[in-house]
Structures are given as C-alpha cells and as structure tokens.
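Structure tokens please, single chain.
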Amino acid sequence: MDKQRFATVETMGVGLTLLREAAAKKLIKADIVYFPDFEANKKEWESFLPHYMKYENNLKFGGFKFSDDGSPQGKTAWLTQPYLIPPEGQSKDYKGFPIFTDEVLYDDLKTIFSKNITAQLHVNGDAAIDQALRVIGKLRQEGIYKPELRATLIHVQNSRPDHISKIKDIGVIPSYFSAHVYLWGDWHYSSVFGPERAAFISPANAAKDAGITFTLHHDAPVTPPDLMTGVYAAVNRITRSGMVLGPEQRIKVIDALKAITINAAYQYHEEDIKGSLKEGKLADLVILNKDPLTIDPKELRSIQVLETIKEGKTVFKR
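Here you go.
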C-alpha cells in the first residue's frame, strides 16, 4: 500500500481552509481523510456534519481528533508508572500528564458519538490509553458508543497486556505507530520505559492473537511518510542499533500488509471500495519493485513504489 492511499491529516483553521480550496480546484490526486481537532472546532463542530464520510473532490471529513497526551520519545506521554529516566527538571516520580479530564473527554465524545460521528484518539502512554478505554467503555455501556463507529486509538505505544481484552470488548481499533520500534526503540529501552515496557510497544501480535482488527501508520511530519518502514518494524522489531525489541510481538509480512490495506480501509469505513483487489472496488493500487512476501524481511525498507494508480489512472510513476 502506497503512502498516498490513506493520508490522515490533522487540520484546523488555515490548514482546513487550504485543503478545501485545493479540493475545490481539483488539485488533490489521492484521497485525503481529515480529522479536525474537536476542541479547536468546538463552536462550529456541527458545520462538519454535512461532509461526514463523503468524498468531495477526493477530500473527506472522517470524524474528529482528540489528542489525549504527548509523546513517549519527548517524555510528555501520560504514564501510570514513572519514566525510567525523568526529563531534566522533573522528579523521579514524573509520569507525564493528561490533556483532558475524564469529564471533558466524556462530554465531548458523547456529543459526537450521539450523532454517529467517529473519533480518533491520540493516546501514547498507558494512563492515556486507560482513560480512553474507561471513557469509551462507559459510553458503550450507556448505549451511546457502538463498535460500528470504529473509534480508533492512535499510536498506543505504552500499551499493557491487559489493554488487549479491553480494546476487543469495547470495540475500538488500535492503530500502532510501529516505526517507533525502529526509530526510537533504543531510546525507549534505555531511557523512556526500560526493557520490560519497551518490549511491548506496538503489540501487534497480541492484537492479532486476540482477533482484533488493527492498523499501522506513520506520523508525518514527525517521521517520513514511509509505510514500508512501519511494515519493516512490525515484522522485524529491530531497533537502529540492531537489537530485537520484543520478539514475541513480531508479525508476519502478510499481516503487516493487511494492516495498511484492507484493515486501513475498514478503519475508514471504506472496505467495500478499497483495501483489496476485487471486482467492483476502486482500482487504487501500487506497483512495487520487489515482492514483500518473498524477499528477506530485513530488506523490506528497500522496497520502492514504481507506480501509483488511482481509480485506474496513473498518478505517479518513477
């Protein structure tokens, strides 16, 4: 799956205006699904409703974004246990911090779920994951959240084994930032989480064994928009120093490819038109220079996109 297929753009203000202008001028070649920040657009959130799940010149409003904490590599993610080495100026019991109270997150999610609008929740630390599961779980018990909305937990880095069954029971989708293993795995191991917690970041295999539909993503511009690095990391779990981090969480190449194709289409409510080669679906596909299923898995990062085809028409060719 080419990085152009499922671009998720976190937009607000000027960014959203530019996106809509580009769409109106038919300048967008790939489909873009955008998730504006709910808090930033709270006063006019209902103005987005007519655009929900409708492509308008390749641009679609897919729901709202909630950023529940920061980043583990920056040591601002919200944890239940202290960072292995606290950032400068912080005490040994420093655990990061939340963005929302349970009450604010509950009220916001209730507002949009009641209108059958989905959400993506940025959760990196295990305390932030706990909060998201706690709040969405309550809304599900009240009949307000329904699994068919496919709310998504984004990043889910400092996940714990007990999160897996809760994710399945509540009916949300974990989208793992798997490239963390490669890009920051050494840092997580030696400074952020320590060996035990670091070994369970992006636990794709635990999700797979539990029968959970999961996806993989990059986080451009934080990292380059390169999903093959995400595939490489999920399959090999090799850090930049060459250490294998959490070998039991490695997944097969085919499962990593599903995570960025058919599972990604499912996450965006588009599995009926995208994500696999099937009669009646859009001819959205890429041509690669190597077969990811037959090459040495350690060579996955070397794969290049030779051609990108959107609805049967070539939009990129190397």
